[in-house]
Amino acid sequence: RILILDFGSQVTQLIARRVREAGVFSEVVPYDVGTGFIRDYARDGSLRGIVLSGGPNSVTEGDTPRVPQIVFELGVPVLGICYGMQAMAEQLGGRVENGKVREFGYAEVRASNHTRLLEGIADSVLADGSSLLKVWMSHGDKVTGMPPGFKVMLSNEACPIAGMADETRKFYAVQFHPEVTHTLQGRAIINRFVHEICGCQSDWNMPDYVSEAVEAIRRKVGKDDVILGLSGGVDSSVAAALIHRAIGDQLTCVFVDHGLLRLNEGKMVMDMFARNLGVKVIHVDATEQFMGKLAGVTDPEEKRKIIGREFVEVFQTEAAKVSNAKWLAQGTIYPDVIESAGKGKKGQTIKSHHNVGGLPDTLNLQLLEPLRELFKDEVRELGLALGLPREMVYRHPFPGPGLGVRILGEVKKEYADLLRKADAIFIEELWNTPSGLLSEKGEPLSWYDVTSQAFAVFLPVRSVGVMGDGRTYEYVVALRAVQTQDFMTAQWAHLPHELLGKVSNRIINEVRGINRVVYDISGKPPATIEWE
Ligand code: XMP
After folding, report:
1. Residues near ligand 1 with C-beta < 6 Å?
2. Which atom of ligand 1 is nearest to the CA of 304?
3. CATH 3.40.50.620 assigned to 206-393
4. Is 510 an annotated catalytic residue?
5. Do the beta carbons of residue 431 and residue 462 sit within 8 Å?
6. Where in the chain is the domain with CATH 3.30.300.10?
7. CATH of span 2-197
8. ipTM > 0.95?
9. pTM attached to this predicted model
10. 35-50 pLDDT, tens digit each
11. Distances (CA, A) of 281 to 45, 187, 387
């Protein structure tokens, strides 16, 4: 396995991800975990290499993070990245200076000398046989003098020592970030490091991760009880399944039904968790409480605040009943961690997103976040490895305030009931209609698979229609389907007209109270994905 020491870079987890993609188990720990931890970690011989991440500090200042000396004494290969390179240089007897020019973004570096790390890895080869790499740089400081035993591995004009190597000790360091996809050969470099330099086999996989994670949870919580807010979404579901695998009945889930869930969602969650998996789930039907508080409220932000506040209240009341709970588990995943790290710098609140994330302070519980290191697709894979059904694991995201932000203006139970039915028809047809595309494994993908999020929106306006011989005066439903990588920007999905036609027919025929269906063709920006 590979140990990654984190010096605070925003992209440290990407290193872990690349190592795992190479089929090798890796773990991220803070740079100051302590010598004892690292020694114990290395004791059974399974530690094959250490990566030092980037970080925001400068080694030219005295009180900034340093690499625990033991890292250089274990006899395992070490790869320093950015700050990790600078710290390695400084601590082993080289020199680092404050760069006058910051290098940020794409850069080209030239591989000088042949090293085992880079041999044969190139974006292009120059006439003199040396190779060029297109890499992603982000640094102010640079190494200006190498420690004894090192040779230059990479250079460019701005940074004559952009990479260095001591091949005898297998210490390598690069100023750029091989873990980001902008560095085209980054994967190849990390693969080379873990497989050939460290000698790791590609034998890490999700089932292994399950056992590691189960062990880690057991170690952490011991005999304590844990509570978790189960929403029916992918992240909290996978977290629940994993924690239950680890500690069984020490876990209690609280599932709050605010009356704004999708069709049959409550039943589905209870069937899967309580019945099939045998998880203890407290199911609270708080529909009346939520509807009561939402009555007469039309302002979107106000609605979000009410839903958030009521949710916290209901959850806390239920959680307090689990008297010996010491831990609050959450399905926080790595992108949430990055997003909240950036908070406060972004300025204006566009929408107050409410997640279970806002809960814990008053409960006096410690946080248990077993998915904190994983990306969404890894969480999905983990869910499958834990035996959750594919339809659940590949579900589109659903916002915390649920249908509350999909019923425009005042929320009423009557509207929610109509919307649930229309939405279920739309989703069913998306699942059932092949998109004509194939997955990487060659399996046919449905329109549900190739859209990132799709749902129906209830418009509380009535329009005139005709049904049989009679005139109707009923509500409108809008369909929304988007494609996006990161949900920050999105394109409306070009669904086939036949599919849209079928969904419209079915909704108007099957949902009494809806006589008109429209399709939303707005991108984000300027529209958002949800309508409120
Ligand atoms: P917008 O509407 O801002 O949505 O383009 C971007 C993504 O965030 C989801 N979303 C939420 N998720 N709590 C959540 O957990 C919320 O309050 C919330 N509001 C929006 C939305 O569904 C989309 O995936």
Report:
1. 351, 353-355, 397, 399-401, 453, 487, 524, 528-530
2. 17
3. yes
4. no
5. no
6. 413-519
7. 3.40.50.880
8. yes
9. 0.78
10. 999 999 899 888 999 9
11. 41, 42, 18
